[in-house]
Each structure stands twice: as C-alpha cells, then as structure tokens.
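Team,

Forwarding the record for the chain on the shared tracking sheet. I've put the sequence and predicted structure together so nobody has to dig through attachments.
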Amino acid sequence: MTMKTAEQYNRIYPQSNLFFIPSWGKLLGYPTLGTYKNRKIINITADSVVFLSNLEITTQVGGETKHYIFGIGYYYTKFQIDEGKYIIDFRRLTGLCISDFVYQHMLDSKDASLIQDPEVILKETIYKVPLELNDSKRTENQISFLKGVISRELFVPNKEIFVEFTTLMQHDSAFNFETSGHLLLMATRQNFNTLFISKETEPSLQEKFLETTAGLTHATTGAEFLLKKDFSPPEMEIINFQITSIEQIYRNMSYYPATPFEYFETGALQLRSIVIQRFSKGTAMSFSNKLDYHIARILDRSDLRVGIFVTPLEYEESIPWDPNHPRKTLESWGISRDEHSLRPMALTETQIKRTEIDLKDYKRGPTELATEYKLEIMKNPVAPSRDLPPMPQKSVKEILNYLQKIINEKYEMKRIGEAFGEARDITRKLAFHTDFVWEMSKIANAFEKSDLGLGLNPKDTENTLLKIEDWIKAFERTEQEAKEALEKERLEKDHAETERVERQKEYRRLEREREEKSLLAIVQEQQEKEKVLIMKALQLEDAIRRKSLATQKGQKMAEVKVAASTNGDVPLVKAMDPAQLYEEFQSLISYLKDLNVKLKKLHALIKPQTWAEKQARRKQRKDIKRRIKKLSKQTAKLQKNMKKNT
C-alpha cells in the first residue's frame, strides 16, 4: 500500500453520538420515489435515518472530501404503493457516508430549534445529540434543560421510529455484524443515494437487502471494496471493532420509551469503558501492531472542530451542490408535506437577560420584602397536613381522575408529588407504552422537593389540571381506538364464521345433489334391467306354451327358440331356466324396495325449492311404487304358469 502524504491523513475520532436525519429525501433533494417489489411508489410519508455512531472519519480521496460515521443504525421508510395502503420497511446500516457538498447543505440548513449548545445540533436536515452530556462544561440545570428539549424535539415526535429501531437491535437477525457484514448508505459524487452491502452477507439476508425500497436509487454489493479503497487494514480493524462493540452493548439493553435519552446514554457510557483504553492519548498507536502513524491517526481533542461532525477541517469556501445530482422540490413528487416548525421557546439559560435592580435606596417598602416578591399566582399557599385517600389500582382513567381530585381538594404539594410518583409506577404496569408516564415522573420529582405544609400555587394547579385533562383525552382516544380495533376484529371473525357456515351448507347441498344424481342413475340402470327381465318372462311364457302344445301333439322339443317380443328386438332365449328367472325377479323387487326407502330419506333431507321440483320428486316415488307393483304381478303370473305346466 502506498504511503499517504500529510494532507491525506484520515482524521479519525471515537465519539458516541446519536444522529437523526428526519428526511433522507429532503437532504438529497428528493432524487427518487423508488420502487418496491417491482411496483412504483406513489407517496413517501417517512424516510428517516437513525444512527448510533461511535466513530467518525474524514477522508480525502481524488479531490473529494468524504465524511464517514460508523456504528449501528437503520433507514426507516413508510410509503404507499396503492391508495390507502401503507407499507413500513427498513434497511440496517453500519456506516453512513456523505460527500462535502451534502455536508455543506447540512451546515447551511435552517435551525429547527434556537438551542445554543455548540455540541447539540438540531437542524432541519440533521439532528446530532452527544450521548455524554454529563461533563464539567454544563451545570445540572443545563443538562436537564437540554434533555427536555431533546426529548420534545426528537424522541416524542419520532417515538414509533425509535421504538422499532431498539426492538430490531435486540431481536432481528439482520442486526448482527458477523452475519450481515457492512451496509453503507452513501451520498457521494460517484455513489449518490446508494446502499452498498457486503458480499459476505448470508444469502437470505443479502436477498432482502438488495431489494429496492422507497427513496433509494440503487442497492448493490461491494461495501468492503469501497472501504478498502479509502481505509488501510489497521483502520478497518478499528472500524470493525467499534461496530462489534456498540452492537453487543445495545443488543443486551432494554429500551424504555418514557426515558429514551437515558437508554442511549447508558449504552454510550458502557461503550466508553470498553474502548477508552484503546483510543486514549499514548495508547492509540498500540491498538494494532500493524497500525502505522502515517497510515491512520486518532485525533486529539485539540484537533477537533466543533460542528455537526468533529473530524472535518474547515472548508476554505462554500462548496456548491454537485450539478450531476440536481435537487428537486417535494412538489415535483406530487406530494405536499408540512415543514418542521421553528420552536422559539427552546432557549438556553445564557440567552435569558436578567436586570439587576439596586434596592438599597428603595423608599416604598423594606428591601427584604422587595427581594422576596413573587406574583400572586406563583405563591404557594399553606395547606393542612392530611393523609391521601387510597389510590385506584386497576384503571388508568380512575388514577387520572384521582389525581384531579387531590389537586382540586388542595392537598399538600409534597403529598401530591408522592401521589404522582405512585400513579406513574402503577400506570407503567397497566399501560407500558403510555406517553404521559414520563411527564408524571417530572411532576412527581418537582412536587416532592417542596416543603411540608405548602400547597400548589394557582399557576401550577391550572397547568397540572390542564395536563391531566389532556392525558385523560389521550387515554380515552387510545381506549376508543383499542375498542374499535377489537370490534373490527370481532366483525371480521363473525364474517369469517358466517362465510364458513355458508360454505359448509353449500358443500352439504352439493353433496346431497350428487348423491341424488347417483341414485337416479341407479334407478335408470334398474329400469333397463326391468325391461330385460320382463322380456325374458314373456319369452319364458311363450316357451312354456309352445312346450305344452308340442307335448299334446306328441312332438319332442329339444330346444325352444323364442321369437322377438311385440317390439321385435328381444333376442332368442335358449334353455330358459324358470327358477333362475324367478329368483332374478325376486331380487329386483327387493332392490327396488330398498331404493325407494333411500329415495324417501334423500328427499326428506333435501327440501324442494319449487312446486315443480316437489311434483317431480313425488312422480319419482310413484313411478318406483308402480314398477314394484308391476314386477310383483309379473312374478306371480310367472310362478302360476310354471306350476300349471310342471
């Protein structure tokens, strides 16, 4: 491998950050709606990227600066291929790479919040949240403030995306570096809006990852090939180690939606304890025996640049968007989407200007009282010490009504805070995914810090009651949606059961019709047999008559030939045996009687639908009775003639 010049150093720094791109399509200028299962996508409602990064690298190859982040993430998309039908899909990621012109667009995008912490970036195109806020640079109040803003701006609006991401990390086989390998989402000059996967990926996963999805132009193999072009083997060793480490940590952690920041922060701290020795000052070069300072360099903190990424050098001039990948508008897709609104209330403590008033010469009242002045609505009244009534244990709505009641009845602020804490714990058990549990916890912590004997001031009372009212409405909506879902499921089951019963009825009807047709075919067959037997009887009678006449005239009759019946189509009968013919008659009569019984049963099961059908069935039964009667007469006549001529 050729040695790199000083200007070609890859700038590497391990740092735990959570990156969130609200819309990948908006960042890249809406390049494509894409296809799914070879069908065109007509609308994209979500195309976000969530990425837990613990390694940033800036590299410069061929005059193009590329910014990499490595770790674990996913591309989440929700879209339509038919009207009214939404599909959710995802692609697991181990790396994200953007070119200098895309990074410049990130830098130039508008702020989504007026927060002024240099390390917390909340822009329209990118959110960056450092996962180790607890350092000496921030006070406890600043940290609490930042976490509140991050939760409101990032985790609450995108709750569904983060819940699914953390669930997939723990349970989906795709989130396993050993079996899936590298998956890179790239937006560079040569590989714009393309997903690269590893050739070493298991065949079943490779087939899934190579399927196109909403918002992506291409999906292809060759991730390792691209990485080896930009990074040396020791650098690849660092990258692979970082991905494996972060994956192992978060796979074994449980996600609690009410405190999302704590989940990611805990994982970052665990990761720090694993890798800090490998990347600390003085030990970076011993990470690998093959690591050469001229090939890879772990940056010192003094080398970092404050911004969205910490490894890039400052651009000498603004980089224009690459004309080979022209930007489009959302309307060019035929879609309209609300822009992310600016939240002016998200301010830091440093932005609040306080005016100091010198009260030492104040003539209208004591200085001591002036410094303790509070608005009436902010004053906490004295409240009698009383025990709280028992809290409901089986219904979230009853718990919320209980909280309203104790606030209206003006219990002590501290006891109300304890009640909110108890309500939070019970609500977690009854409805784990309820959104307001986290707010309950905040209220409980704030109220429990108050002194005994003080009640809620009017402002806190009004704000808290309004919040509870909102919670009740939200919970009622959730209950109603659950009831509607259950009712829909019940109706679907009832409909399926009705269809099943109707299918069974139809099957039984067809089966009976088949049986009836089969019996009717047998009847027709027996009718033909009757004709033959009757013809044989006529022939036998004629033979007996001829034999009797021949005996009277003294003629011997060695063989009797019988002429045809009155129709002239009956064959001659040789050596006719009367006894055998008699038995055949008796057998046929018995069979017809049995057939008549079966027909009666079948007709009893299959009710006639029309008068004509009823008449036809009645005629069938009468016909069988008539034939039985006719055959009985023929048999009796045959028997009588046999006795007479014996």
